[in-house]
């Protein structure tokens, strides 16, 4: 009786979930129609209380994991005039939309509403996202313990297997609601939230991931995985600008519990610390992020093992533009890890042209990763899949540049290179957002 009840609850929840996902396109269209006037409006009835702004940034981007991406990001945000300080401009509400398609046939749409107006003395996040990645990478588990052999994807080499040997298809649909209750002030909050997730992977017999699934090292369901996630935690932040921060901090600690209502569940602990430190003056900054993400109990399915959790917006696959510049996406897969990013940034140009402020920054960065919890390997996983290496640490370094418009939208260029000589070479990333 209990199992039937949970299955009915699950079916109802995911019926609502997919109904929301199906209306996603209509939501975007309606938003554009309604806000076409908002973006060009010079005054509203609430202008005496709020300052409303918006921007649209076309996505003409590139990274080795997605290929060339084309689409757009849209931000519409409100700032309460009474909250504006000489060095601090926190927004009250922000509606963020991002959608792109890529030459590797990857697709992503994200709608994220971040608001302090929905519930009194609270910040709320409402997220609706959908993605389909036709070329999601899989290089094995536990970092360098898994062999990467370029010869198996080289058409002209005798060891050639398939050009897509290190790839597979992955779909991810998500609805999330997070409630962050103010504890004394909006700079210290308690997190309570949930999400409904549907994930599905598809692969063929000539792809690496099939060896791991056949060996029962990775859990896989051909029909996909439906997961309910609950998160609880604390967050504290004091940033002078939530888009282009030059001073402050943003820290969080969370517990995330996941269940598929059929007996499979796990819990992870997340602690992330971000700091934005000006050096001598506002033109020189030292930015840092360190995140501890570890499994506390249970078995993590592969579809969720690759996630990097963030209280604002999570990303899939350690490696790449959002986590480790210079490493292929999902090259570093484990049950637990420490991720660290350090970046020195200097402003070289700061001008105002036709009421648009333009800032140009250059940067030097280094990204680091250390495995704290490995995925258990069975004896069936023998060479050439297992390298026998015990290295748990890897790092990258590189240079970058940023063009920031009105301190709210950004174009980024980063080039990262791995410190390990036997890995793939440098990687170029052109995008429209900061890493953290």
Report on this structure.
This protein is mainly beta and about 425 residues long. The chain is globular and about 65 Å long. It has helices at about 1-20, 25-40, 210-215, 300-305; strands at about 50-65, 65-80, 95-100, 105-115, 120-135, 165-185, 185-200, 225-240, 250-260, 265-280, 280-300, 305-310, 315, 335-355, 355-375, 395-405, 410-420, 425-430. The strands form 2 sheets. A 16-stranded antiparallel β-sheet has the order 1-2-3-4-5-6-7-8-9-10-11-14-15-16-17-18, with helices on one face. The chain has a two-stranded antiparallel sheet with strand order 12-13. It is built from 4 helices and 18 strands. The N and C termini lie far apart (about 45 Å). It has a single domain (about 1-430), classed as Porin (Beta Barrel), CATH 2.40.160.50. The model is unreliable at about 5-10 and about 10-45 (pLDDT under 50).
């Amino acid at each position: 009786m209990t199992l039937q009840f949970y299955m009915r609850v699950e079916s109802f929840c995911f019926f609502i979930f997919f109904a929301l996902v199906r209306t996603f396109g209509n939501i975007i269209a309606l938003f554009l129609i309604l806000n076409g006037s908002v973006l060009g409006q010079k005054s509203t009835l609430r202008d005496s209380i709020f300052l409303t702004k918006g921007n649209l940034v076309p996505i003409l981007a590139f990274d080795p994991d997605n290929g060339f991406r084309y689409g757009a990001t849209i931000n519409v945000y409100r700032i309460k005039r009474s909250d504006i300080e000489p060095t601090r401009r926190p927004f009250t509400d922000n509606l963020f939309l991002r959608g792109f398609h890529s030459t590797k046939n990857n697709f992503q749409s994200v709608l994220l509403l971040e608001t302090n107006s929905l519930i009194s003395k609270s910040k709320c996040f409402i997220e609706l996202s959908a993605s389909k990645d036709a070329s999601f990478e899989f290089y094995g588990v536990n970092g360098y313990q898994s062999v990467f052999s370029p010869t198996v994807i080289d058409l002209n080499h005798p060891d050639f297997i398939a050009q897509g040997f290190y790839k597979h298809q992955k779909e991810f649909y998500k609805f999330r609601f997070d409630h962050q209750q103010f504890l004394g002030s909006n700079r210290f909050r308690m997190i309570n939230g949930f999400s409904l997730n549907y994930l599905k992977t598809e692969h063929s017999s000539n792809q690496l991931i099939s060896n791991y699934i056949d060996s029962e090292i990775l859990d896989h369901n051909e029909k996909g995985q439906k997961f309910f996630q609950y998160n609880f935690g604390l967050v504290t932040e004091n940033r002078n600008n939530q888009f282009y921060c030059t001073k402050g901090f943003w820290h969080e600690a969370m517990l995330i519990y996941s269940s598929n209502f059929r007996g499979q569940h796990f819990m992870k602990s997340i602690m992330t610390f971000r700091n934005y430190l000006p050096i001598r003056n506002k033109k020189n900054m030292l930015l840092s992020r360190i995140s501890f993400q570890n499994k506390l109990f249970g078995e993590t399915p592969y579809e969720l093992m690759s996630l990097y959790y963030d209280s604002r917006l999570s990303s899939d696959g350690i490696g790449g533009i959002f986590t480790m510049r210079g490493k292929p996406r999902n090259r570093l897969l484990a049950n637990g890890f420490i991720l660290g990013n350090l970046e020195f940034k200097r402003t070289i140009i700061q001008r105002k042209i036709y009421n648009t402020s333009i800032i140009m920054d250059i940067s030097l960065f280094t990204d680091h990763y250390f495995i704290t919890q490995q995925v258990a390997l069975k004896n069936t996983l023998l060479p050439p899949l297992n390298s026998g290496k015990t290295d748990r640490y890897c790092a990258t370094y590189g240079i970058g540049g940023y063009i920031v418009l009105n301190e709210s939208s950004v174009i980024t260029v980063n080039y990262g290179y791995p410190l390990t000589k036997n890995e793939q070479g440098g990687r170029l990333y052109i995008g429209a957002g900061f890493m953290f």
